[in-house]
Specification:
three-stranded antiparallel β-sheet; single chain; mainly alpha; 3 strands; 85% helix
Length: 207
């Protein structure tokens, strides 16, 4: 079936409801419709629903004409005129009462939906609070772990500096020992050179 799109004001005219009642029913999800990009509220009906509304409207108008004709007939006498005036006022009050009841029903429906939305939002707020609390605890734990790791790193850095110092001292000692050994070797070489010269001199004299 093809959908029929009616302005909310047109739907209100067909049903005898106020425009606010129609909008509230759309908001509450009781009536299929929406406020579109043009800023106008629309009601979406099936073809059968639309035709039923038209027939109901025509039937009401026909009944109204018959009733109005009967009331006009009563107005021919003074007593009948009073009765007709009273009945017209009574009918008007009944129509107003029915319209107010429709609006009240829509408002109650909308209120119930808002209460459910509020309940959901409160639950979501509690969930988010709990999640924030969990994140705060996790953050504290991570900060504590980070501080612990920083302490370990500082301790390792101190140990590394101490080892670097020890290594530097060992290197200096090795350099000193190496220099001492080189000095000893030089002295030995000098002694050998001196001895060779002495031997050569003695050899020359012997010849």
């Amino acid at each position: 079936m093809n959908d029929v799109k009616l302005k909310a004001s047109e739907y209100a005219s067909l049903t005898g409801l106020s425009i606010n009642t129609v909008k509230n029913r759309i908001r509450a999800g009781v009536l299929k419709g929406a406020k579109e990009e043009d800023g106008v509220w629309y009601v979406y009906l099936t073809k059968d629903e639309y035709e039923h509304l038209i027939r109901s409207k025509e039937s009401q108008e026909e009944s109204g004409k018959v009733l109005q004709s009967n009331l006009e007939g009563l107005r021919s006498t003074l007593e009948g005129n009073l009765i007709a005036t009273y009945m017209s006022a009574l009918m008007q009050k009944e129509q107003q009462k029915e319209q107010l009841l429709h609006e009240l029903s829509s408002l109650y429906t909308l209120l119930a939906i808002r209460e459910k939305e509020m309940e959901f939002m409160l639950k979501e707020q509690e969930r988010l609070k709990e999640r924030c609390s969990q994140l705060e605890e996790e953050n504290k734990r991570l900060l504590s772990l980070l501080e612990e790791r920083e302490g370990i790193i500082k301790e390792l850095e101190n140990q590394l500096r101490e080892k670097d110092y020890v290594i530097s001292q060992k290197e200096l000692e090795l350099q000193k020992v190496s220099l001492d050994k080189e000095r000893e070797l030089l002295n030995k070489e000098l002694e050998l050179t001196t001895l060779r010269r002495e031997l050569e001199r003695k050899k020359g004299r012997a010849e």
